Amino acid sequence: MISPRVRFLLVVFVLFLTLPPVYSQTWEVYDLQGKLKSRAIYDKIEVLSESVIIGKNENGLAMLSRDLRPVVDLQGDEIYQYLSPWILVKGPKGIGAFHEYGQQAMSLEYDEIQTYFNFLLGKKGQEYWLFEKGNGKTTALGRLDNARLTHHGMLITQKNGNYYLPLSKDPEHPFQLLLENKGNYLLAKESTGFGIINIEGDYVMDPVVDELEHNRGDYFYGFDESQYLLIKGDEVKSDVAYNSYHKITKEGGLLLEYIHGKLRRVMEEDGILLDAVGMESVSLVQDNLYNVKFRENKLGLLGKKGWEVQPTVDLDWIKSGSEGLFPAAKKGMTGFVNSSGTWVIEPQFAETGTFSEQIAKYRNTLAWGLIGIDGKIISEAKWDDIKDFSAGIAIAKANGQFHLLNKQGQVLNENGFDKVCRLKEGYFLVEKAGKQGLLDNSGVEMLPIEFEYIQVESTDFLIVRKDGLTGAITPSGEVIVPVNYQEIVTDWSGNQLLAKELYKPVVIQEIESEAGKRKKGA
Q1: Alpha carbons within 13 A on the beta-carbon side of 18
Q2: What is the Cα–Cα distance from 306 to 289, expressed in whole angstroms?
């Protein structure tokens, strides 16, 4: 028979085994020159912005001061999302929100939280709440079909098939439709027609237009009482920038006006971009760039400021150009024309790229080669692809491998790489068989291909991982922080590095002694 004392000790032992261990590890704090400043005990540290540092240890999740002291208890288990100035925190019961200055705005109980600079919109089931930073109050919006904050801070709700603007002067006014767009004004619809609403929720164009849709920016395209309208949004009163009884079509972002059934004008958002007789068709090449075809087989390239390439006979198409030359086609072959439409490089290729540093790629089969701005062949076509030149070097691909080419078309690395990435700092990050290295801006090796990853923080500061260990070095390989840590986190605003040590600490737990007194055990 088991004695009560033994039974008690067995129960305590089982409880001891089921207690979750708390792991917190040492982070060493270095300055940017690699000098050790201090240490802190956390399992995890995140630098979210210049002013927001988060730490997690056995005491929970907290905002930290610059010297890594906890200053705000975030009450949750993890950072759900950081959308400045709001920190969304996830806990066992849901999501909550803190301002990056430390004030709690919403408790950790919501299914979803939408953010804007001055507002938070919380959702639980179909119930919604709005927090306003200006007065620090949370208002219950009730049960809704849907609610959302727009990109410019307006609140739109839906209930029983109607739309509402709860933050406007008339929050109970129903709308048949409220549509957000990339501009600063809402498109609204009521029984009387379409209108435009400003950020305050006021009509700047009354809802009387028969048909209206957003075009681009703050411009709208509509039809009312046999007139076609181009309308510019305004904070006080929207203007009809252009109106016409002639037909204006909107096709794929392209506005065209027809007079007596014939194409006559290419329209801007608020007026006429081109008024010309004899146009047959207009096609969008890319944003704000059009191929305009005229009678007598003339074709020109029209831009926002006028003709990029003057209308010229016998052209199939013209594309966006660079360095004064534009890819163009004639009878199915591609060459280059100048702004007057004159052939500078005769159409002799199946396809070309655009010029970069006076060199362009071309192809007549599936392979690409290089030509100069004088039309002479620089290198034979043997590449699957060639990227644009920059600082005298292009990246080319063949047989699944990447190589660097100079302006003479010569290969700078005979042994290809699996990946090559040109970095804004001027370096090339290269990868082979899962390992990474670094080349300088002329393609010369700076760091051998032996790292699991290389993260370029600046031109003279890299975070690297090798053999499972992390550290910080310069591009020349000089050690700033030894490569023997689990993790390195940079805090540039604090001019410091946070290095997580590799070892696991001893876990200390409290257990009940036979005499009923607590003692520590490892």
Answers
A1: 6
A2: 10
Whether 447 contacts 430, CB under 8 Å? no
For residue 344, give the H/E element and its range.
Answer: strand 343-349
Q: What is the DSSP string of 396-411?
A: EEETTEEEEE-TT--B
Among 431, 429, 389, smallest CA distance to 409 is for 389
- CA 351, 356, 361 angle in degrees (round to 5)? 25
Beta bridge partners of 28: 39, 499
DSSP code per residue over 453-505 = EEEEEETTEEEEEETTEEEEE-TT--EEEEEEESEEEEETTTTEEEEE-SSPP
Average the pLDDT over 288-294 and give the result: 97
Question: Is the pLDDT at 508 greater than 90, yes or no?
Answer: no
Residues in the chain, overall count: 522
SS3 category, 201:
coil
Q: Report whether pLDDT(10) > 70.
A: no
**Of 23, 58, 40, 78, whose CA–CA distance to 503 is shortest?**
23
Q: For the chain, what are the domain ranges?
A: 74-174, 181-275, 293-354, 355-416
Model confidence at 280, pLDDT cuts 50, 70, 90, reads very high
Structure token pair of residue 513: 């002694």
pLDDT at residue 4, rounded to an integer: 47
Tokens representing 292 are 């305009």
pLDDT of residue 76: 97
| Nearest alpha carbon to residue 248 among 236, 259, 235, 237 | 259
| 69 CB-near residues (< 8 Å, 6+ apart) | none
Work out whether the CA dihedral 117, 121, 122, 123 comes out positive or negative.
negative
* Residue tagged 């997580």 (tokens): 500
Report the candidate in 64, 69, 105 with the shortest Cα–Cα distance to residue 88. 105
Confidence of residue 7 (pLDDT cuts 50, 70, 90): very low
Could you tell me the CA-to-CA distances from 493 to 47, 52, 56, 497 in Å, in that order? 10, 10, 21, 10
The DSSP code sequence of 261-296 is TEEEEEE-SSSEEEE-TTEEEEEEEETTEEEEEEGG
Query: Which positions ≥6 away from 208 have C-beta within 8 Å?
Result: 192, 193, 194, 195, 224
Cα 314 to chain centroid, rounded: 42
- What is the three-class DSSP state of 216? coil
The 8-class DSSP code of residue 7 comes to H
DSSP 101-142: TS-EEEEEEESEEEE-SSEEEEEETTEEEEEETTTTEEEEEE
Per DSSP, what are the bridge partners of residue 386? 396
Token pair recorded at residue 407: 């302006």
List the one residue out of 56, 24, 53 whose CA is nearest residue 41.
24
Could you tell me whether strands 518-521 and 25-31 are parallel, antiparallel, or unpaired per DSSP bridges? unpaired
pLDDT of amino acid 346:
97
pLDDT at 513 over 90: no
Place of tokens 């390989």: 477
CA distance 258 to 262: 5
